[in-house]
C-alpha cells in the first residue's frame, strides 16, 4: 500500500506539475494583457480575458487545453467572484430605497425571463412546461435576467448623479435584481434534476433560504464576536473564506442549489460585520491574481466556433435585442408607474440594461449541467460587449438632455 | 467531438467541484485553527498546520484524502513560498557583510551535509558514490543544510540585538546558506536522473545559473521599466507571478532543476525592483489564504505512521542531534577562525541551528522523486519543533550572559 501510495500519485503529480505551472503562467499573463487592451478600447476587462481564452484555446492557438485542473481553478474563481459580490451588498441601502426599487427589479427580471423564453420558442417551436425543451427555453430567459450594474455605477459616479433619486433607484434595483436572478436560476436549475418535481424544487429552495437565514444569523453573530476580538487579523478572512466554500458545497450537495448561490449567500451573511471590506480585499487579491482570470479564460477555452453558424449569429443578434429591450421596457414601465418622469424612466431602463459576469456565470452553469451547449457563449459575450459599450453613451446623452437635481441620500 | 467535449469533462468536473470545495474549506479552517494553537504553545505555526494534516488525513480521521487537486494546490503553495523567499532577499545586506558570512554559511552547509551522509551510512552501511544508496545518504545530508533563520531573527529583534555584529552575521549567513542549500539540492537531485552523469549535472546547473543571470538581468530591466511606468498597479504582481511560474516550469522541464529553485531565482531577480515588497504582499495573500496551508496540510496527509517503528524513532533522534550539532560546530568554528569571541561563536552557531519550511520542502521533493519515503517527515518535523523551541531559549541565555555592544549598520 505504502509503495503505490508514495510512488504513483506523486510520479503522476510531478508530471502534472509542469503542465499546471505552464498553463497558469500563460493564462494569467495573457488574461492580464488582453484585459488591458480591452480597457484601452473602452470594453470591459472580462471581455479581454475571454478573448484571451479564445486565442489560447483549441479554437485557435491550442496553447492551453481545458483540463480538470483549469476547470477546478475556474470553479474556485467563480465562487470567489460571487462571494465578493455578496460581501459588497449594502443591505441598509436596500431597505432605504425599498419598494420602488423592489418593483423595478421584479418586473425587470420577469420581462426578460419571459422574453428570452418566448424568443427561444419562436425559433425552436413551442415547448410544453416540464419538457427538456421548455427548461432550455426558460434557461435562455434566466440568462437575460441578471443586471451587472458596475458599468452604470461607474458612469453615474463620473457624472456625479449616483446619489440622485434615479441613481439610487438603479443601484438598489440592481442589487435586488441579483438576488431575484439567483433565486430564479436556483429554481430553474432545480427543475433540471429529473426526479425533482416543481413542488420539491420550491420546497428545497425555500428550505435552503430559511436555513441560511437562521444558520446565517448564527454565523453572523459568531463572526461579529470573532471580528470584535481579533479585528484585521488573517483569521477573519480565512474563516470567512472557509464558510464560503462550505456553504457553496452544502448548497449544491444537499439542496441541489448552485454552489455559486451558496457562495453569494455566504457573502451576504458576512456583508455587515465590521471587517467585511477587509475580507473582501483579501478575497479579491486571490481572485484577481489567479482564480478569476482562470475562470474567464476558461470560458474562452470552452467556447467552440464549430457550432457557430449563420443561424447562431442571427440568434445571437435577436438574443441581444430581446435582452436589452425587455430590460428597458420592464424597468422603464415600472418606474413610470411609480411616477417617474418619462425621461427618468428611460434613464433607469437604460441603466439596468448592462450585463456582465453573472450572465456568463449562469451560462457556464447551464453548460456544465448540459442544459445548453457552449455555442451560447457567443450570444452572451456579444450581449456583454454591446451593452457595456452602449449604456454609458446612452446615459450620457439622456443626462445631458435632462440633468436631474442631485439629492443627498441621508 | 463537441458532444463528448462538452458533456464528459464538465460532468466529471461538476462531481469534483463538490469535493474540492469541501476539502479546501476543511483544510484552510483546520490549518488556521491548529496554527493558532501551535503559536499559543510557542511552536511555529507550520507545525500546527502539519499536525492538522496528520489529524485530517488517512493517518487518523480520514476526512481528507490526498488527491491530484490537493497535490497541485500544494505545489503552487510551495512555489509561492519560495518566490516570496526570493523576493525578500536583501542583496545589499549580502554584499555588505560579505566574506565572513560567506565562510560561516559555506562551512555551515558543508558540515551538516557530511554529517547527515555519514549518519545515514552509519545505520545502513557504507555506500559507494554513484549508487542509489549513496544518493539517499547524500539527500539526508542535504535536508540538514538549510537554515530557516526566521525564528532567530524574531528572537534577536525582540532583544534588540539584530543590528549587532553577531546578528548581522547570522542574518547574512542564513541568506547565503539558503542559496548554497538550493545549489546543493539542485546538484543532488540532478544526480537522481539515471542518464545524468555528474559532469552533465554540473553542466546543466551552471548553464541554468548563467542563463538566469543573463536572462534574469534582462527581465529585471524590463520589470524596472514597467514598474516605473505603472507603479502599484495590479499588472506588476501579476506579471511577476507569471514570470515565477514560467521560470519554475522551465527550470524543471529544460534543466532538470527543481521547480522550487526556479521560483526562488525568479524572486531574487525581482527582489530589487521598487515594487518588490508590493509583489511580495500580493503573493503572500494568495499564499497564506489558500495555497501555503494546503502545502503544509498535504505534508501531514502524506505522512504515514505505518512505517514509523522504534528504529525510525531512534533514527529521528539521531537525525535531530546531528543536524543541530553539525550546524553549531560548523558555524561556530568558522566564526572563531574569523576572530569572534567564543561566546559569540556559540551565539552564531546556535542562531543558525533553526530549521523550517525549506527542510520540509526539500524532504517533500525527495519524496515526490521517490528518493526517500514519507516516514522521513517524522525526523524533519521533530527537527523543526525541537530547534524552533530550543534556539530562542539558548539565545536568550547566551545574550543575558554576554550582551553584545549594539553596532549601527550603515
Give a written overview of the molecule.
The structure is a homodimer of 410-residue chains. Chain A is an all-alpha fold. The first copy, chain A, has one domain (20-401): Na+/H+ antiporter like fold (Up-down Bundle). Chain A contains 15 helices and no strands. Chain A has helices at 2-40, 45-56, 68-87, 91-124, 132-145, 150-159, 165-192, 198-229, 235-255, 259-270, 276-302, 310-337, 342-351, 357-368, 376-401. In chain A, helix 4 (91-124) packs across helix 12 (310-337), helix 12 crosses helix 13 and helix 12 packs parallel to helix 15 (376-401). The radius of gyration of chain A is 22 Å and the shape is globular. Chains A and B meet through helix 1, helix 3, helix 9 and helix 11 of A and helix 1, helix 3, helix 9 and helix 11 of B.
Could you list some keywords that capture this structure?
mainly alpha, 410 residues, homodimer, Na+/H+ antiporter like fold, 79% helix
Amino acid at each position: 500500500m505504502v509503495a503505490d501510495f508514495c510512488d504513483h500519485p506523486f510520479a503522476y503529480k510531478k508530471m502534472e506539475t509542469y503542465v499546471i505551472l505552464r498553463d497558469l503562467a500563460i493564462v494569467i499573463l495573457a488574461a492580464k494583457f488582453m484585459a488591458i487592451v480591452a480597457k484601452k478600447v473602452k470594453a470591459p476587462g472580462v471581455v479581454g480575458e475571454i478573448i484571451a481564452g479564445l486565442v489560447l484555446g483549441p479554437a485557435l492557438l491550442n496553447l492551453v487545453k481545458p483540463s480538470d485542473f483549469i476547470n477546478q481553478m475556474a470553479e474556485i474563481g467563480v465562487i470567489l467572484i460571487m462571494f465578493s459580490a455578496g460581501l459588497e451588498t449594502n443591505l441598509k441601502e436596500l431597505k432605504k430605497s425599498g419598494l420602488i426599487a423592489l418593483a423595478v427589479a421584479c418586473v425587470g427580471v420577469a420581462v426578460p425571463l419571459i422574453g428570452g423564453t418566448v424568443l427561444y420558442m419562436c425559433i425552436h417551436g413551442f415547448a410544453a412546461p416540464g419538457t427538456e425543451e421548455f427548461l432550455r427555453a426558460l434557461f435562455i430567459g434566466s440568462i437575460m435576467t441578471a443586471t451587472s450594474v458596475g458599468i452604470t455605477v461607474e458612469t453615474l459616479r463620473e457624472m456625479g448623479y449616483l446619489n440622485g433619486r434615479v441613481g439610487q433607484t438603479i443601484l438598489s434595483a440592481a442589487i435586488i435584481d441579483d438576488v431575484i436572478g439567483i433565486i430564479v436560476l436556483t429554481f430553474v436549475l432545480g427543475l433540471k434534476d429529473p426526479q425533482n418535481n416543481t413542488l420539491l424544487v420550491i420546497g428545497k429552495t425555500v428550505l435552503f433560504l430559511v436555513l441560511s437565514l437562521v444558520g446565517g444569523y448564527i454565523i453572523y453573530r459568531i463572526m461579529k464576536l470573532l471580528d470584535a476580538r481579533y479585528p484585521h487579523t488573517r483569521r477573519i478572512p480565512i474563516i470567512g473564506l472557509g464558510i464560503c466554500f462550505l456553504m457553496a458545497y452544502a448548497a449544491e450537495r444537499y439542496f441541489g442549489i448552485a454552489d455559486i448561490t451558496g457562495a453569494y449567500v455566504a457573502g451576504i451573511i458576512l456583508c455587515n460585520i465590521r471587517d467585511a471590506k477587509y475580507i473582501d480585499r483579501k478575497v479579491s487579491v486571490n481572485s484577481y491574481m489567479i482564480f478569476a482570470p482562470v475562470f474567464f479564460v476558461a470560458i474562452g477555452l470552452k467556447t467552440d466556433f464549430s457550432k457557430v453558424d449563420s443561424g447562431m449569429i442571427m440568434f445571437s443578434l435577436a438574443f441581444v435585442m430581446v435582452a436589452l429591450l425587455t430590460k428597458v421596457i420592464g424597468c422603464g414601465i415600472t418606474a413610470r408607474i411609480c411616477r417617474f418622469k418619462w425621461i427618468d424612466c428611460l434613464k433607469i431602463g437604460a441603466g439596468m440594461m448592462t450585463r456582465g459576469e453573472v450572465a456568463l456565470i449562469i451560462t457556464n452553469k447551464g453548460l456544465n449541467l448540459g442544459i445548453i451547449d457552449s455555442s451560447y457563449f457567443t450570444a452572451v459575450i456579444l450581449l456583454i460587449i454591446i451593452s457595456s459599450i452602449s449604456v454609458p453613451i446612452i446615459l450620457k446623452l439622456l443626462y445631458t438632455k435632462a440633468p436631474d437635481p442631485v439629492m443627498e441620500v441621508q
